[in-house]
Amino acid sequence: MKNTILSAKGLCKSFAHNGGQIHILSHVDMELYEGDFTVIMGASGSGKSTLLYALSGMDRATAGQVLYGGEDLVQTNEKGLAALRHTDFGFIFQQMHLVSNLSLFENIAVPGYLNKDKSAQKVKERTEKLLEQMGISHIKNHLPSQVSGGEQQRCAIARAVINEPKLLFADEPTGALNRKNTTEVLNLLTELNGSGQSILMVTHDMRAALRATRILYIADGKIIGELTLPPYTPDEEKSRETQVSAWLNSMEW
Ligand SMILES: Nc1ncnc2c1ncn2[C@@H]1O[C@H](COP(=O)(O)OP(=O)(O)O)[C@@H](O)[C@H]1O
Ligand SMILES: [Mg+2]
Questions:
Q1: Of 18, 26, 50, which is best to mutate to test ligand 1, by the most ligand atoms within 8 angstroms of its C-beta?
Q2: Ligand 1: does its nearest atom lie under 6 Å from the Cβ of 24?
Q3: Rounded CA gap, 217 and 51, in Å?
Q4: Ligand 1: does its nearest atom lie under 6 Å from the Cβ of 44?
Q5: What share of the chain is helix, strand, coil (3-state, %, to 5)?
Q6: Which ligand 1 atom sits nearest the alpha carbon of residue 43?
Q7: How far from each other are the two terminal CA atoms of the chain, in whole angstroms?
Q8: Domains of the chain: which residue ranges?
Q9: What pLDDT is recorded for position 224?
Q10: What is the distance between the alpha carbons of residues 16 and 22, in angstroms, rounded to a whole number?
């Protein structure tokens, strides 16, 4: 029996458009479970990013509830949401958004230094460990502009987990990467999940979706399907691809 980490109830999101409203999310009900690598798939423009922003408190839903740790994030004020994004959630995006005049080391460590619960020494040690795990120790003093896109994304992953988030959100984290870097980034996310990190990733990349232990499919503003899978192993990639591909076809992907 898995523990629920976050849940949405009747979640709606609309945008003002041409004097009217367009409804992107309409009464979404869903739960995220601790330890899962949950992936949300759906066509481009189906509302995947909108859902991720609403669930993570980056944006506010129009109606409904997002329940996390006994709190409804739809009702939480901006200050509360900012604190939560800092302490409990980690974020990775398609664009890495690293600070251009800070080294890779500093980019990772800075959110750690802002965390009052950890000493500077502890943050430094964890940063070194993450640099090692992400395979970027040798370039830790480089600026983001001096390293490849794949290395920047690995740095962004380290930064996202420096404060040991309860939930890691990723929006198309491989969207700007070539094939080799995509594989590396997916391997790192799989590894993090293997050591217990709960992840919610949205993607329209089938290869990324193969890493999931649970895939949700969004269409017409709702979650219309769910597939659960055992943890990913590379030797089963082919059969997993066949299974996921058949399921996606049944969702009319
Ligand atoms: N701030 C906004 N204002 C108006 N429309 C928006 C806004 N953000 C997203 N949309 C629209 O909502 C739909 C879903 O967007 P998005 O969640 O980014 O889709 P996905 O991530 O699945 O590609 C799109 O049609 C998009 O144009
Ligand atoms: Mg998107």
A1: 50
A2: yes
A3: 12
A4: yes
A5: 40, 25, 35
A6: 22
A7: 30
A8: 90-164
A9: 97
A10: 6
- Residues of the chain with confidence (pLDDT) below 70: none
CA angle, corner 69, sides to 214 and 189, nearest 5? 35
Q: Is 203 in the pocket of ligand 1 (CB under 6 A)?
A: no
For residue range 227-251, list pLDDT tens digits in order. 999 999 999 999 999 999 999 999 9
Q: Which two tokens stand for residue 194?
A: 């293997």
In angstroms, rounded to a whole number, what is the distance separating the alpha carbons of residues 133 and 85?
23
pLDDT for 2 equals 87
Tens digits of residue pLDDT in 173-184: 999 999 999 999
Separation in Å, CA 241 to CA 102, 193, 195, 207, 209: 40, 19, 23, 8, 9
What is the position in ligand 1's atom list of the atom closest to the CA of 17? Answer: 4
55 lines ligand 1 (CB under 6 A): no
What is d(CA 16, CA 19) in angstroms, rounded to the nearest whole number? 7
pLDDT in tens, 18-36: 999 999 999 999 999 999 9
Q: Checking DSSP bridges between strand 167-171 and strand 198-202, what pairing results, if any? A: parallel
Give how far Cα 27 sits from Cα of 12, 14, 42, 95, Å. Answer: 5, 11, 17, 29
Its sign, for the CA torsion 233, 36, 124, 113, is positive
Among 24, 41, 49, residue to substitute to test ligand 1 (most atoms within 8 Å of Cβ) = 24
Residue 150: per-residue pLDDT: 94
Q: Identity (one letter) of the amino acid at 179?
A: R
71 residue type, one letter = E
